[in-house]
Design brief:
about 450 residues; Alpha-D-Glucose-1,6-Bisphosphate, Chain A, domain 3; TATA-Binding Protein; 6-stranded mixed β-sheet; 5-stranded mixed β-sheet; 14 helices
């Protein structure tokens, strides 16, 4: 039986995989596991998907049936829920969203009272309770039943927090903002205008079905075009729940999460705000990130793919900046999860203060060419222990030296091994390196 919780909560097609019944059971089990008082308070937010109201209603029923009071903050961002859970002293928070996934999907993310996503062991306890044949959790009656309060104004506390994350304003900047027809639609344009920027908002008319459709951080082509057409200084593209952001420079070129981290890391180091002179990235971040930061004495620690692994390493090492190439970036001094709006403000404040163009700031990092190929591997589990494959990998690493890197990893879902080589070499040479490893994988693991 597959695990109910994935790398970012529980997800599935709404009303088929992620049913109201499952949402109800998750709420009851979540209230049981996360409540620290006899009358807990739990905050619920959602993105703009049509199914959000259905799942919200189911979770309200589950929480209140356990005696928990619920504050409904309506359509908002995932990082807003993380912040409000902590700032308002709630026992837990829930975000109903499937982030950048297509409209039919939805998801449920839990936050503990400290604003962090749940560790695996807590999710496992909740899941074990959900899967029990009989629900023997408490069912208070009378005045013991939880109450529901709509508090959509609470989001203003999060917006006020964002305003405080930068000094000064953004006056003089001309921006185009792609809200993905999602959670950012109700916050991002107003926030940036409040800070003095001139803002053109696109894909900011959610109708319950158009979230992430040909727009947002995973499909920024229309934003690239709009930035050039409007002569803007920069563009910003969020995903459905605005926990990530991708930027576009004044020339219409993408500035991805790696480049944003390179810009922000250098600025933080210069101002003494980068503990250990270290940031955290995943194995998928471009090697150009390390090459760009090395001359400034900044190290890059890599983790497995997923913001939970980035955050775990940040907490372990006391680091304050980490993230992914996808634009899911964590400024731990500002929030406990990736925050697209907070990231935007950090980037834009640096842009304004520098007096430079965004393309000039992004040039601090050169993206190295990358070749990625998949090789059939029936015995992919033998990858690490196969001497011939490991020797082939070692030979390529030696040839690359400090001018690139090699990443060879088994697929988590298919009988494949993925071979990636990137570096400051001609593309044809990188392809030869990949095939040198791949041919041995075919011989040894197929």
């Amino acid at each position: 039986m597959s695990r109910l919780f994935g790398t970012d909560g529980v997800r599935g097609v709404a009303n088929r995989d992620l049913t109201p019944e499952l949402a109800y059971r998750l709420a009851r089990a979540g209230a049981w596991k996360l409540s620290s008082s006899h009358r807990p308070t739990i905050i619920i937010g959602r993105d703009t998907r049509l199914s959000g109201e259905m799942l919200e209603a189911a979770m309200v029923a589950g929480f209140t049936s356990m005696g928990a009071d619920v504050r409904l903050v309506g359509v908002t961002t995932t990082p807003a829920i993380a912040y409000l859970t902590r700032a308002l002293g709630a026992d837990a928070g829930v975000m109903i969203s499937a982030s950048h996934n297509p409209f039919p999907d939805n998801g449920i993310k839990f936050f503990s009272g400290d604003g962090f996503k749940l560790p695996d062991e807590v999710e496992d306890d909740i899941e074990e309770q959900v899967r029990r044949e009989r629900d023997e959790l408490p069912r208070p009656d009378g005045t013991g039943i939880g109450r529901v309060r709509r508090d959509e104004a609470a989001v203003s506390a999060y917006v006020e927090h964002l305003v405080r994350t930068i000094s000064g304003d953004l006056s003089g900047l001309k921006l185009v903002v792609d809200c993905a027809n999602g959670s950012a639609s109700l916050i991002a344009p107003a926030l940036l205008r409040h800070l003095g920027a001139t803002v053109t908002a696109i894909h900011a008319g959610p109708d319950g079905q158009n979230i992430n459709v040909n727009c947002g951080s995973t499909n920024p082509a229309s934003l690239q075009q709009a930035v050039v057409e409007h002569g803007a200084d920069a563009g910003l593209a969020y995903d459905g729940d605005a926990d990530r952001v991708i930027a576009v420079d004044e020339l219409g070129e993408i500035v991805d999460g790696d480049q944003i981290m390179a810009i922000c890391a250098s600025h933080m180091a210069d101002s003494g705000r980068l503990p250990g002179s270290t940031i955290v990235a995943t194995v998928m971040s471009n090697y150009g990130l390390e090459a760009a930061l090395r001359p400034a004495g900044i190290s890059v620690v890599r983790t497995a793919v997923g913001d939970r692994y980035v955050l775990a390493e940040m907490l372990k090492g006391g680091y304050r900046l980490g993230g992914e190439q996808s634009g899911h970036i964590i400024f731990l001094d500002l929030n406990t999860t990736g925050d697209g709006l907070a990231t935007s403000l950090q980037l834009l404040s640096i842009l304004k203060a520098s007096g430079s163009k965004l393309s000039e700031l992004a040039a601090v990092m050169e993206k190295f060419p990358q070749v990625l190929k998949n090789y059939p591997a029936v015995h992919k589990e033998r990858l690490r222990d196969n001497a011939a494959v490991q020797a082939a990998i070692a030979r390529v690493k030696a040839q690359l030296g400090d001018e690139g890197r090699v990443l060879v990893r088994p697929s988590g879902t298919e009988r494949l091994v993925r071979v990636m080589v990137e570096g400051k070499r001609p593309l044809a040479e990188l392809e030869e390196f990949v095939e040198a490893i791949g041919s041995v994988i075919r011989q040894e693991l197929a």
